[in-house]
Write a sequence for this structure.
């Protein structure tokens, strides 16, 4: 039996890239998926259609999770939708993220706020609302972080700081939520093909990074999806408060 049969998950920023990869894998493992998107409805519906074509269950919901009120409303709406099906929200995956690399002399306050609002504030308050929705039944929260959280890159000071922040949030909330049977972990991918990074990397850049990786290749969204599926499943029931790296052995 698929490991997530009977489970229901909300994934933020899941219309494409890593989020879509996670959605496809979790659906294949039996979970019902609500795919959140901010503006690209067509991409979200394409991912929904792919999941349904494989006999999975998925729907799309729009919300700009950088806005706390919208983030909370999204979680509540997802929980209500699953309740209509006689089920409950079991899994919240905070995947949505933004990254705009810039050297120090080109940084400004607006960009700082943009990245922290999406990558940190939305994660914290989304987790708050998810934990409330879980109630006494417990649940699982998974944050999609980044290897940059512990290996910051030049020109990515703000982004790296946001990913270090969510790692700290993970450890803190794991201790607070554990007694309520809520697990929380961060999954920190290495370089992975996605819209977020493909915009900034040239083919030769990917080749260089692949040579620095033990497995000699760049990650794919489904690689991250498979690790995510394990972390939100009962197979990982003894894992909480951890930052799990999935990088193919990127040590450079």
């Amino acid at each position: 039996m698929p490991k997530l049969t009977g489970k229901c998950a909300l994934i933020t920023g899941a219309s494409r890239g890593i989020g879509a990869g996670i959605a496809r894998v979790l659906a294949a493992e039996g979970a019902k998926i609500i795919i959140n998107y901010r503006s690209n409805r067509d991409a979200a519906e394409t991912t929904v259609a792919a999941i349904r074509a494989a006999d999975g269950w998925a729907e799309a919901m729009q919300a700009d999770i950088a806005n706390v009120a919208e983030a909370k409303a999204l979680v509540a709406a997802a929980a209500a939708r699953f309740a209509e099906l006689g089920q409950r929200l079991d899994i919240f995956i905070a995947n949505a993220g933004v990254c705009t690399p810039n050297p120090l002399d080109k940084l400004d306050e607006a960009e700082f706020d943009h990245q922290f609002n999406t990558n940190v504030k939305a994660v914290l308050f989304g987790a708050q609302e998810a934990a409330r929705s879980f109630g006494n039944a417990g649940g699982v929260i998974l944050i999609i972080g980044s290897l940059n959280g512990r290996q910051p890159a030049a020109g990515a000071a703000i982004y790296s700081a946001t990913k270090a922040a969510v790692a700290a949030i993970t450890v803190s909330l794991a201790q607070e939520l554990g007694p309520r049977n809520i697990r929380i972990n961060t999954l920190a991918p290495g370089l992975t093909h996605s819209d977020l990074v493909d915009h900034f990397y040239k083919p030769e850049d990917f080749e260089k990074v692949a040579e620095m990786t033990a497995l000699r290749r760049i990650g794919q969204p489904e690689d991250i999806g498979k690790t995510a599926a394990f972390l939100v499943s009962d197979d990982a029931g003894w894992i909480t408060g951890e930052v799990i790296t999935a990088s193919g052995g990127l040590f450079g």
About this structure: Residues 8-246 form a domain with the Rossmann fold fold (CATH 3.40.50.720). The chain has a mean pLDDT of 94.
